Please model this.
Amino acid sequence: MKNLFSVADRVIVITGATGVLGHAMVLHFAEQGARVVLIGRKQEVGRALEAQARAAGGEALFVAADVLDTAQVEQAYATVMARYGRVDVLINGAGGNQPGATIPPDKTLFDLDLGALRGVMDLNLMGTVLPTLSFARAMVEQKRGSIINVASESALRPLTRVAGYGVAKAAVVNFTKYLCGELAQKYGDGLRVNAIAPGFFLTEQNRTLLTHPDGSLTPRAQTILSHTPFGRFGTPEELLGTLQWLASDASAFVSGTVTVIDGGFDAFSI
Ligand SMILES: NC(=O)c1ccc[n+]([C@@H]2O[C@H](COP(=O)([O-])OP(=O)(O)OC[C@H]3O[C@@H](n4cnc5c(N)ncnc54)[C@H](O)[C@@H]3O)[C@@H](O)[C@H]2O)c1
Model:
């Protein structure tokens, strides 16, 4: 019987692969029989994760690249094409925030560090645009491919304090929807672009916002959980079902969407 959700043998390129969420994605897709390409800047972490995926019987290839460096991204694309000759899925996972683009309780909008704001816009938006411009070329040739952008709950409902990050992720959502039309109208319905909007997952980029050094929750984390019907943070593994659906033929008529994965945060008021 055909498995609609199969990703076996698909070439799945993941940027931000060495991060907390990326790590779970890499191991999952390798376990599912995909050929997983890990794109990241951290050689040592990337090679270790590549080895871990291979040790578990998966096919994995680490390629070092900074997603903001066009030449490095192009080089990574050339490496992937030389090795596999195709790209089936691109997950644009590289992203994050910077302290200067966040406004702590004792500061105001007028203290915003514009350099940090630009940095956050660049990483999240241009860090999605540049890999797309390279890796989507294979998809156009194949007339087939799925791009999955990693947005955030903060793109949909602005959160207090994280001024720059929310704006940047909102731009990722808009780019996702734009690209859905652009690619399907010019190259056919085999090309799909979607985004996921994770809610709150405790990872390195938000650890200091959400927990004290002793691991206890900050007041902000308590506020978040009181607005989350599930009453807890998500685990990286809880993104995987949605990603597999978007990466596989099970979502063949799905493009331009944003799937919220947040334990009910987005739907909840009081
Ligand atoms: N953790 C959450 O609660 C949460 C919620 C919503 C969205 N997200 C998004 O999920 C994605 C993964 O984040 P995470 O939580 O795993 O954080 P993370 O910091 O663990 O991972 C981010 C990864 O991106 C990499 N990266 C940063 N700049 C890069 C660059 N210029 N080139 C290449 N790689 C670069 C980092 O090295 C890191 O490996 C990000 O886009 C983040 O914004 C996270």
